[in-house]
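Can anyone check this?
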Amino acid sequence: MGRRKKLKSFEKVLISDIAAEGKSVAKVDNLVIFVQKVVPGDVVDIQIIKKRRNYLEAIPTKFHQYSKDRQEPFCSHFGVCGGCKWQNLKYEQQLAYKQKQVIDAFERIGKIAIPQIIPILPSPKTEFYRNKMGFTFTNNRWLTKEEIDSETDGLIDRRGLGFHLPGRWDKILDIDKCFLQRDPSNQLRDKIKDYGIFNNLHFFDLRDQTGFLRLITIRIANTNDVMLIVQFFENRVDEIRSFMEFIKEKFPEVTSLNYVINPKGNDTIYDLEVVNYHGQPYIVEEMEGLYFRVGPKSFFQTNSTQAYNLYSIVRDFVDTSKDDVLYDLYTGTGTIALFMSRSVKEVVGIESVSGAIDDARVNARINNIQNAQFYVGDMKNCLNDAFLNQNPHPDIIITDPPRTGMHPDVCEMLLKIECPKIVYVSCNPATQSRDIAILSKKYQVEKIQPVDMFPHTTHVENIALLKLK
């Protein structure tokens, strides 16, 4: 059997750019090389680890020069966790590359001219900005290099509570401190893990699908309401009661304490009963005097502060009047629709998830909003001639689809409706520009504004205003 051919290495390579999905790029002899754990401006020796048809992948083996745009990562888990890949890049440069990502998507993918691009809106908080986090229990946590080198592997407690490693569904990194969610998130996670270990409760085995403690979800609202959802794999009544009583007594700041019995092959709870053990079955977020109930299954923008700023930009873009009818497509729990309701005559929201529409109707009721109607249905099937005949014709359409963008049938229906203004909000500029290219038959882009919802990650939100030609 022949020996496997060794892949190439290169010396003193300049990392020149960042490409889609935040991958750092070098070019050697017209070869495009994606290099891990480096930033533009670094000069490094690299070892090729994978050969693809149009590019290579590499890791750095030696640094000759560090970029002026580098910064020291603030989290001890950086480089292993994978959650905040840009902690080693100064925030100003993160913003610049995110804005470039949006421009590249419009110009290269959509072939769309941009008359005006407003500079990206930074996040007011670059740490502790998330309102929702999930942590997974494991009986076989990922070991650090120091633990492996200690030669005491068999004596190490492998129980942990933390995040999936990138690309590894069965490997969990135990977390000491996470900088994404404010207190009491870290204390809750640590005390829950300690309780499980002290009481010798069975942590989940992801491969064998056995165990008792499976996952926790923590939500912290801008009103300081705190929700905890504990997923148990097995319905052990006495152990669940003791576990929940411990949390109730130890953390009185938890205003919504819930649990789920989840014996399925995945972690989703949308088809499961959530038991409210203590407190209210929801938490409340606030925006400009509007209150939004957020239940265990509800969607709410993960960065509450920046979500308000994003909605404010959308409102400024559409420049509404009291006679306008506004359609909010992919309305979710109706947050944008209800936020806009006070400045228009009528709001019509459409969403495929029935539970989200239930939330939207509740939120309309508690805020005494009477000019909002919500409908459940798959967008490509719901937004049709019959729907338009039953509802007033829109003056403004806001669309905020999932990462995959809009179905082509929805784009074609928007062309048919000929609404004067469309505001397209997207968490994926690539699919956004693809859809806008279809809409360009009748619409032109007036302006766009990127918004940074997730500092230290490669993700960027973008708002585009389209007007009928």
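Reply from J.R.: I decoded it. The CA atoms of residues 67 and 112 lie 33 Å apart.
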